[in-house]
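User: Can you help me understand a structure? I only have the sequence.
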Amino acid sequence: LFIIEGLTMYMKADEVRTMLAIIRDHFDNAYVCMETLCPYFVKKENIEKSIQATGATFTWGANSFADLSNIAAGFRQHRPRYGNTESHLQAGDVDADRPQIRRENSGV
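Assistant: Let's start by predicting it. Here is the structure, written out as tokens:
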């Protein structure tokens, strides 16, 4: 399980792609829960005083899983069956009785 929170908005798209590729290539059954900032707020970083005070800049964001098609190659979206509406990414072979996201090149 990889929880990536409060990080990707400070990265470039290529850096996010590289990070996910490392996870995909080294962990056969990885779940990734990744927070992303929507592109609208990436452009509005100057309205947040806490960001202004640090001098940090937002560089990347995504509105939906569809926006990650080139970033999260080899991952598929997984939505839980009940309750929670959030989704996560998964790579690798998993139990056949549960709907999962599988790594595209896993042969499954």
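Now, to help you interpret it: The chain is about 20% helix and 15% strand. Residues 38 and 63 are 5 Å apart (CA to CA). Let me know which part you'd like to focus on.
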